[in-house]
UniProtKB/TrEMBL annotation:
Record keywords: Cell membrane, Membrane, Transmembrane, Transmembrane helix
Classification via PANTHER family: INTEGRAL MEMBRANE PROTEIN-RELATED, PILUS ASSEMBLE PROTEIN
Topology class, membrane: Multi-pass membrane protein
InterPro entries per record: T2SS_GspF_dom (IPR018076)
Domain Type II secretion system protein GspF positions: 165-293
Subcellular location: Cell membrane
Transmembrane portions of the chain: 6-25, 95-115, 127-148, 276-298
Protein known as: Type II secretion system F family protein
Species assigned in the record: Gemmata palustris
Length: 306
């Protein structure tokens, strides 16, 4: 047993070393990039922030590890940062944390798969086969989790946007300005739909900093990545460009957004009848057959046994 455990640990160490070395050589950032990242983190934290805090030390360790693994290609790093921003993670160090988490998942699952296979005495060939499988799962799993987070966030914003537009339409048609309507919508929608409420607060602050409402909503569309927000931003930019009525544009788009949400709800309801077929065939019908036909089958078996 001791030999198996030592072999599993050795296998884990070799696998981790190869993966770390390969990723380090593939996407090693330059010294200037690392110094700039360290300087930005120091400026963001402030002087003396987090001294003696173990969580601060853990974050620094993870960020330092991620800085060595972050893609050196600027386009790839920017694409990853944009993807994380769609999920709601906009911290400057989130790319470093994500890459460190991905590496940790690869090493942990590869070592767990290889070590478990070796501990079960299935042979070193099977252990060597299962370790890359675990590493592949660890490499892909964070991507699936990130995609799920993005889809969930986009769905929440898409469902809440018509309600926020209705509040803005009522405010504008009641005589308030567009900025006041945006402020009122952000305050009212915060408790019911916190994701959209937080985004509207960002839009409001961008307007206060000097951006027009259309430009602020265009930045909001880039942050959330849904077509409804892009259409709303385009409508607001058109009204600002040609001097059209903002109230009429918001009313037309709010009606369109509510109709689209109703069509989406009807589509989901129609798909439910198809999706429920498989649970019925696998779970409900067998239980019904056992309850209804079980006594008859037992009686028939007794009759034939005679």
């Amino acid at each position: 047993m001791l030999t198996v455990v030592l072999g599993a640990l050795a296998f884990f160490a070799v696998t981790a070393g190869v993966m770390v070395a390969g990723r380090h050589l593939e996407s090693r950032p330059s010294n200037d990039q690392r110094r700039a990242a360290d300087r930005l983190r120091a400026l963001a934290d402030g002087p003396g922030a987090g001294d003696g805090d173990p969580r601060r030390g853990f974050r620094d360790t993870v960020a330092r590890l991620g800085s060595r693994l972050v893609p050196r290609n600027g386009a790839r790093a920017a694409a990853l940062a944009s993807r994380l921003a769609l999920a709601g993670y906009r911290d400057p160090s989130v790319v470093l944390y994500y890459t460190a988490f991905q590496l940790a998942a690869v090493i942990a699952l590869a070592g767990a798969a290889g070590g478990t296979s070796a501990a079960l005495d299935t042979g070193w060939k099977r252990a060597a086969m299962w370790a890359p499988v675990g590493g592949a799962v660890g490499l892909i799993a964070p991507t699936f989790l990130l995609t799920s987070r993005v889809n969930k966030r986009q769905r929440a914003i898409r469902n809440a946007l018509p309600d926020a537009l209705d509040i803005m339409v009522l405010s504008v048609e009641g005589g308030a300005s567009l900025n006041a309507a945006l402020n009122w919508a952000a305050e009212e929608i915060q408790t019911v739909h916190p994701v959209l409420g937080a985004e509207l607060v960002v839009v409001q602050r961008e307007v206060q900093l000097g951006l027009s409402t259309g430009e602020a909503f265009r930045a909001f569309a880039d942050r959330c990545g849904i077509e409804e927000a892009r259409d709303l931003a385009a409508a607001l930019l058109q009204t600002e460009k040609y001097g059209a009525s903002v109230g009429k544009a918001l009313r037309a788009y709010a009606d369109s957004a509510r109709q689209e949400r109703q069509v989406w709800a009807e589509e989901v309801a129609q798909k439910a009848s198809v999706k429920i077929v498989f649970p019925m065939l696998l779970c409900i019908f067998p239980a019904i057959f056992i309850v209804l036909l079980g006594p008859a089958a037992m009686q028939m078996s007794k009759i034939f046994a005679r």
